[in-house]
Amino acid sequence: AVYSASTGAAQAQVFRGSASARTALVSLHDRYLLAPHRTKPAITVWEWGRETPAHTCYVAERLTCLCADSTGAYVVGGSPSGSLYLWLAETGEFLCSWRAHYRPVTRVAFLQGELVLVTAAEDALVHAWSLADVLCARSGVSGDAEPLATWSEHSLPVTGLCCSRAGGAGSLVASSSLDHTCRVWRLGRAKALCAVSCPSPLLCCCLDGQEQRVYAGGRCGSVFEVSLTGARPPPPR
After folding, report:
1. Which superfamily does CATH assign the domain made up of 59-227 to?
2. Where does the record place its WD repeats (predicted)?
3. Dihedral sign (CA 198, 66, 63, 144)
């Protein structure tokens, strides 16, 4: 189903021919919907308002996650091999790929208004990458790209990732994991700002609009609400 962000009402919208990977839908320019195929090395593209796919783009390997930056200029996909793939959205031109993780990539997200990509994987690591550094490395201008930051306090696969709306050095990144913890990081700091343990393995997380709370979805079916302002977190819903 498609929901209105302003009213919360469900809108009649059907996209046929979908076999997309879980949590990998991308809306591009409010005109296109992109989804990697669950079992094939392909990305399906729909136009909003049309039921049948407009395009099918074949890629080097099956993708597990997908995202676009806030301007809609770049699309990034993560794969089971731990590699990331980068394309220009307007033309579909493939720019580069690089090995970012040792295990399958589970989530990719851009910092708002920044060409900084945050990635998470089953290797329990969260990395932040500068796209400028990645492109320079791939063009031979510099050596291999290194992450801007690496956060390694999770002990099991990272399952959820969410970036704050504010860009720059103060950007917040929230992550959830099968190790039962939800952690909040700040770009420029090696250690987590806070870590909350929940009674269930966690499958996803998100920050609220004011960046005062984190919501984490548990495998048990509960949603856990965590305060970032020092107040005692409410019980699971």
Report:
1. YVTN repeat-like/Quinoprotein amine dehydrogenase (2.130.10.10)
2. 98-131
3. negative
